[in-house]
């Protein structure tokens, strides 16, 4: 990257909004069939072209007659009129109604000539010489006059109206089958990272390949905002092809999006095309994570470059780009997708730039919203689903205090706090039991992290394994046991019989991180066996999740890994049993009455069925 | 209709919910490409199949090295290490990092063998014999370990998760390109009214034909609820074809919907098919407007018959059917689409059945929500867009008092109160000026209705024409004049010269309703001219909207109609000018500071441009 791209003055968020707004991404209006118009926005006013109803229409089943013929009628002294005909809905009346006559009529039928009112059938009875009417009616009673609903020439719907089933109903009544609507902005999504591979493709981990997360994420967000996303084929490290894609996208779309590549060569392609065909209006916004944002034009198209990390890309998209797409599509401003909540924990900041802090939501027992920061480190894709929105933190804010009130801009209006927030040990039985809870969140950060966060008052429940903590409540919501030991290649070629064999010079091992309860169980077993951890080759080599050591054994990286019988069985590996440990689900005492916790308790009632499928598990 | 269909015992709303819930409309799960999965719902848990990242990954631009080589480094005493290579994102490291060495590394690149940490470039500077590091780092610093984001075997997303851009991002990272999702229930919409004509078709008014409103409305509502609507071709009065459509829909769909036809023959077809192939579980619900609701089975499909009037059909659909479709699609319960408000006016009821009262929303100057009943009479399609939701009123409630608090179940979660509610004279200039306001509502019920409703405190503004009311505020938000007179056939064949000629025996006339300000202006002109209204043939023949008399002249029904020069010009008719009347837009004094009223005032600033297009208009 050369210096020309290192703008030192970052734009303010307001300037960035203005720069994006200055891009013209509004497509021409179009006409769509009514049947396909749901969610579209009227481009112009629609006045009624016809009367609805188009004729004077009976609005009850009964008898059409001249109202004056019923004057004076009541139950004691009904008026009797001869019936001279019948008229049903959907047919032309065959008779006129003369003075002193009546005609049977159905709801929706055309009023026969001569009649000016309908007496509902409930207020009549048949008599020998006709129909008896026990009530008087006035002209127009139980009749909907032509045009009474909507008359030709009246304003029906205004420009900018979003078409829901209701408006579609009114347009149907008016006989409108082609609807003039705002165009849908076409947004090209060009993938520029040469290390990226579309989902479904094979990754070469040694070459640092990763799946392209932003293309599908941004495309889905474009569609959520009312645009039509066009994904251009991934060009890999073919820079000529990448450049061709960019130029093609610019020619075909109202707006082109890329997301920051970490590849300097790919970045250079983007800059070259912008320089040659368009202009750069803005480089970098003084908001974390907006520093890498680009705004400009490529050819005839508007252009925005998003940051490369998925949460950053989506945040910047939602903050700056989505409003412009909605506006171009004529979509009414989205409903206010914010919630107020109290910080569940304290969060400190380095001062400097305004920061959009990814935040998770949670409700306490009283249903109040709690907010906690989600910071899983740069580029974590799990933050996409573990955060619910962002909190804008001023540049001069040092910290947010626990209990402080904050506003969370939700990732979408239908985001809801999780039913239950579980933090702790990564356990496959618990993970499966959660299938019985609607909308749970499970941060499998390890037992130690679960305890630590519980001391902060954050989670609803903690999943714990390993030795009991000194202050651990003994009455768990549920508990079960899992058999653990050493996962080894199939057939156990090294002939490992127990933890003592890990100290052998020629055995390589992979451990779990110290946050894991299983790690604590393992350490205790090493101590019991009198094995010096320093003699275990790979003791310091740690992985976070329950199945990871077994995977490293499977791939041939190591001879043995700390793990569960269930993992060895799943992956078809050998297993040297060492012991059993208890997994406990502990409730936050402040949340035992929370709905989601009760729902979890019900789901955990079925844990026996879950663990029946997991080798080495028991209750 | 025979007696067997006249069930005397209506089901309770709870029984109706249970009957619909007992129908099995859940389709089989399916697999869709990730790119097309937005809005779908996961059918099963997705566990991570791979580690993300798949390799130890630099999370900053900088230098990869062994952390222990930086111990003790600080700004005063930096450590200098020789650089032995470079590794970019997307490439396999070509070098190992030995003790006392460093390698330049890009964000996202694979950590080279031997290195265990990255020092960000900001904490380094180039020196003659290598790179100087002015900070110490620990192993793992600025490195995202393989699987640190999500590890193979971990729970990624649970069953029942709705796929938004965020989940699509996580699935992308996991390389999942085919997603197991809940099926979309297929809902057949069969049109059974033989008087119905699909929008776009020509109506025969004399035969009582109307456009089919419910098919497209219900289809759109099905899609809003997460179903796939299949519209079956309209069979008109071909009952064999109608029966064939019903049977075909039952064979092809999870659920078949019809909406009540007023045609007895069409109703008989529905009953016959249900009786021969399925069963009727429920006929009629004790809720207004649910009396005609049917629940049962047709062949292998579930079946619900909706009422025939559009607002009733949509209300019953939303109340009983939409939840079942959402449930079958696995869609999370829609957000709570209700608002609380105060009744703006008193509303009385006949006791009897629970009633779902269509209601309009409004905000007062303080932003509080006001609620008013929308009752335009049976079958009005304009109620679809003039109501915002329904208020459930108990069977034993006599009345709702003005100011009483009520809960409105919105027609959809994104329904918002209109920016401004205008009631009064039907005027084309005002109708056009509203195009400049986002989301207005205009009830063109006539000047008299506007004044009456203003006395109740309902509208934000009143549009008035005709003679000034005694208590009318003279300071209007805007006012203009419109030329009125007698609309006659082109060339004025009857040679009408003024209102006096209307008293001629051979001249037929059509008037406006007494609610119209123009009618009052006309009455005053008749009086001035000394014309006895009783001698005007058609004086009592009234229509509601401004263009309707001209349309009756155009169709040859009458010789002259009360109307505007603008209407005559639009329809290419003759016009006999009589006078000018003022149209005034009057603010509700309680709402002058309301945002929507201010927006209307700005739009009315441009009224001159609007009236320049309307012959006979002036300011």
Automatic annotation (TrEMBL), chains A, B:
**Which CDD domains would you find in this protein's record?**
MoeA
Q: Which GO terms describe its molecular function?
A: molybdopterin molybdotransferase activity
Q: Name one GO cellular component term.
A: cytoplasm
**Sorted alphabetically, which keywords does the UniProt record give?**
Molybdenum cofactor biosynthesis
Metabolic or biological pathway, per its Swiss-Prot or TrEMBL entry: Cofactor biosynthesis; molybdopterin biosynthesis
Domain (MoaB/Mog) spans: 188-327
Question: Pfam families under this entry?
Answer: MoCF_biosynth, MoeA_C, MoeA_N, PBP_like
- In terms of superkingdom, the source organism counts as Archaea
Q: Note down the stretches annotated as region Disordered.
A: 1-33
Q: According to the UniProt entry, which residue ranges have a biased composition of type Basic and acidic residues?
A: 1-18
GO BP terms, alphabetized: Mo-molybdopterin cofactor biosynthetic process
Instruction: Report the InterPro entries cross-referenced here.
Output: MoaB/Mog-like_dom_sf (IPR036425), MoaB/Mog_dom (IPR001453), MoCF_biosynth_CS (IPR008284), MoeA-like (IPR038987), MoeA_C_domain_IV (IPR005111), MoeA_C_domain_IV_sf (IPR036688), MoeA_linker/N (IPR005110), MoeA_linker/N_sf (IPR036135)
Q: Tell me the protein's name.
A: Molybdopterin biosynthesis protein
């Amino acid at each position: 990257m050369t210096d020309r791209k290192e703008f030192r003055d970052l734009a303010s968020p307001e300037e960035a909004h203005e720069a994006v707004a200055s891009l013209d991404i509004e497509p021409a209006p179009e006409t769509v069939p009514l049947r396909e118009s749901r969610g579209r926005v009227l481009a112009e006013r629609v006045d009624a072209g016809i009367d609805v109803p188009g004729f004077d229409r009976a609005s009850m089943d009964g008898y059409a007659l001249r109202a004056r013929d019923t004057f004076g009628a009541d139950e004691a002294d009904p008026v009797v009129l001869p019936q001279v005909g019948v008229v049903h809905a959907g047919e032309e009346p065959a008779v006129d109604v003369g003075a002193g006559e009546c005609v049977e009529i159905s709801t929706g039928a055309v009023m026969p000539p001569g009649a000016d009112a309908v007496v509902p059938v409930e207020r009549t009875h048949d008599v020998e010489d006709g129909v008896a009417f026990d009530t008087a009616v006035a002209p127009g009673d139980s009749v909907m006059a032509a045009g009474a609903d909507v008359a030709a020439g009246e304003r029906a719907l205004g420009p900018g109206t979003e078409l829901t089933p209701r408006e579609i109903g009114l347009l149907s009544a008016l006989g409108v089958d082609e609807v003039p609507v705002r165009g849908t902005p076409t947004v090209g999504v060009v993938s520029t990272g040469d290390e990226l591979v579309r989902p479904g493709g094979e990754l070469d981990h040694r070459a640092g390949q990763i799946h392209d997360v932003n293309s599908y994420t941004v495309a889905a967000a474009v569609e959520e905002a009312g645009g039509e996303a066009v994904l251009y084929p991934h060009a890999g490290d073919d820079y000529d092809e990448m450049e061709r894609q960019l130029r093609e996208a610019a020619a075909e779309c109202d707006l082109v999006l890329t997301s920051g590549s970490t590849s300097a060569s790919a970045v250079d392609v983007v800059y070259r095309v912008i320089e040659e065909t368009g202009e750069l209006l803005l480089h970098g916004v003084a908001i974390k994570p907006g520093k890498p944002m680009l705004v400009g034009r490529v050819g005839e198209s508007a252009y925005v470059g998003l940051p490369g990390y998925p949460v950053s890309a989506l945040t910047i998209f939602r903050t700056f780009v989505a409003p412009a797409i909605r506006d171009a599509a004529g979509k009414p401003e989205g409903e206010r997708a914010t919630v107020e909540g109290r910080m569940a924990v304290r969060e400190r900041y380095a001062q400097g730039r305004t920061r959009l802090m990814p935040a998770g939501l949670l409700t306490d027992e009283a249903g109040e919203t709690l907010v906690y920061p989600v910071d899983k480190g740069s580029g974590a894709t799990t933050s996409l689903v573990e955060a619910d929105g962002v909190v804008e933190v001023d540049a001069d804010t040092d910290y947010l205090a626990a209990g402080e009130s904050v506003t969370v801009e939700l990732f979408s209006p239908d985001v809801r706090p999780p039913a239950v927030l579980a933090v702790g040990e990564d356990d496959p039985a618990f993970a499966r039991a959660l299938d019985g809870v609607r909308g749970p969140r499970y941060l499998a950060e390890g037992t130690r992290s679960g305890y630590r966060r519980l001391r902060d008052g954050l989670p609803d429940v903690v999943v714990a394994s390993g030795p009991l903590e000194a202050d651990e409540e003994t009455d768990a919501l549920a508990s079960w046991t899992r058999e653990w030991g050493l996962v080894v290649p199939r057939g156990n070629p090294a002939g490992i019989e127990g933890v003592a064999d890990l100290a052998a010079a020629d055995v390589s091992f992979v451990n779990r991180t110290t946050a894991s309860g299983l790690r604590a169980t393992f350490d205790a077993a090493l101590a019991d066996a009198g094995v010096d951890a320093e003699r275990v080759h790979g003791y310091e080599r740690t992985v976070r999740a329950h199945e990871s050591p077994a995977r490293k054994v499977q791939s041939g990286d190591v001879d043995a890994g700390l793990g569960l019988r269930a993992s060895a069985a799943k992956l078809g590996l050998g297993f040297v049993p060492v012991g059993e440990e208890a997994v406990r689900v502990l409730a936050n005492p402040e949340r035992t009455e929370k709905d989601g916790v009760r729902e979890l308790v019900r789901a955990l009632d079925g844990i026996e069925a879950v663990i029946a499928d997991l080798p080495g598990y028991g209750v």
